[in-house]
Amino acid sequence: MPEAVQQSGTGQHNASEAMLATLLHLMRRAREAASAASLRFVLVNETHALAPYRQAALWTQGQGVEALSGVSAVERQAPYVHWLDRWCKQADAAEAGTATLDLRMLSGSDEWAGWQEWLPPFLAVIRLPAREGYPGGRLVLAREQPFKSAELSLLQEWCDAWGQAYAASRPVGWWPRWRARQRTDQRRRWLWRGGVALAVVAIACVPVRLSVLAPAELVPLEPAIIRAPMDGIIDAIQVSPNQRVEAEQPLFAFDRVSLASRLEVAQRSLTTIQAEYRRNAQRALFDPESKAELAVLQSQIAERQVEVEYLSELNARSQVDSPQAGIVLFEDAGELVGRPVVTGERIMVVADEHRTQIEAWVSPADMVSLPVGSRVRLYLSADPVHPVSARVSYVAHLAEQRPDGQYAYRVRAQLDPDAAEPGPRVGLKGTAKLEGDRVTLIYWIVRRPWSALRGWIGL
Q1: What is the pTM of this model?
Q2: pLDDT at position 4, please?
Q3: Residue 445 main-chain phi, psi, to 5 deg
Q4: Which long-range contacts (CB under 8 A, 24 or more apart) does 249-253 make?
């Protein structure tokens, strides 16, 4: 008898060691699993070494049946999967823990109706608690013999270890991972937030130049405006557009037919009055009445002389010469010939083609403070690679209406004196970048949206 008892105790001890070794082996397999799918396979298939069973299923909250023993993939539309998923949801709602079930005792329940088609009579249901990264679920094992309490204890220990490994292996989004890291180190989280806030404030306070873009062109610097010196009709244009002329070179002439006839009439009238004056001066020596008429004739002679001088001056003005050297700027000679003009009307411009300045038009919505001397860069459409540098010399106080109907402020800027000579020619167009005062970066960003918002809500 003592030998039999000793052999029995040794057998139980060896069985316990074997089960513990199996448990350790399964835990190592869980740690070495490369993915969540591998862990699910280990749970439903290799748990058989710890507690033999015929069928095993893994059910996860929100995902349903995720793994079945003996198959590589779960067919979601299979009747067995539907039935098992419905029962696990009901059991999870009832908050049942780890337990063994004898389905023969539950045959009268609607919940277990038709179990004979799918399962053996004895079940072991091990609850898998929810963890971070895993919502929780159940492991269902089924066989023909009842499960022992020792087996349930080992199964629960194994499932706890498996749950930790499975929660760590599941992919987690960047937001939960970031939140988890923040919770693990409260001090680092606040330091990080403070650093971000300081960085944002520092960047927002970086000084930048407030700048605007405006259409612009090169206009003459100190041009000679050629205006009509008299009322009349232009008879001939003696130059062509953009032609280079020298000082005192003829530009255009008025029609002299009417002017010449008026001058001839005035000259003959003056000659007649002068002859009459001489005749009366000779008669005045003997006739007192003729002497009295001399004063009247003298005033008439002076009047005629003024008229002749005026018409002679007009006749000289009928030929208009260039006051300086440069190029002649006007639209078309055909439009000027034969056109009646009035005194002071602008006809053409004579300017040095390389002495230019920038004229920009800034819309009222874009207008900023542009003190004299502010920097300007003109990006010409003909040569956008080489900008033209200049400094603001004049800013209009009132907006003017442009040919397109829009109102804008006229801004003129003189080219930098160290610019390469000769400079770009008159008439080239492009886009000017005008730089104003220094402001903070946050003001530069929100200036236009804030202005539009205030105009919309009226605050």
Answers
A1: 0.48
A2: 42
A3: -75, -45
A4: 249/321, 249/322, 250/319, 250/320, 250/321, 250/322, 251/226, 251/320, 251/321, 251/322, 251/328, 251/348, 251/350, 252/320, 252/336, 252/347, 252/348, 253/318, 253/319, 253/320
Residue type, 146: P
d(CA 314, CA 332): 25
Q: Where are the domains of the chain?
A: 2-171, 256-317, 352-457
Q: Please report how many Cα atoms fall inside a 13 Å half-sphere around the Cα of residue 167, on the Cβ side.
A: 18
- Report the alpha-carbon distance of residue 408 to residue 432 in Å, rounded: 14
Instruction: Give residue 2's pLDDT.
Output: 46
> What pLDDT does residue 177 have?
53
**CATH class for the region spanning 2-171:** alpha beta
- Half-sphere exposure of 345 toward its Cβ, with a 13 Å CA cutoff? 12
Residue stretches of the chain with pLDDT short of 50: 1-7, 180
Q: Which fold has domain 352-457?
A: Elongation Factor Tu (Ef-tu); domain 3 (2.40.30)
What pLDDT is stored for residue 90 in this prediction? 74
Query: Cα separations (Å) of 430 from 261, 359, 423?
Result: 52, 10, 15
Rounded to 10°, the helix 174-184/186-204 angle is 110
How many CB atoms are closer than 10 A to CB 153?
12
For the record, the structure tokens of 106 come out as: 């539950």
Residue 116 and residue 97: Cα distance in Å, rounded?
23
Tell me which amino acid residue 309 is.
Answer: E
What pLDDT, on a 0 to 100 scale, did the predictor assign at position 287?
A: 66
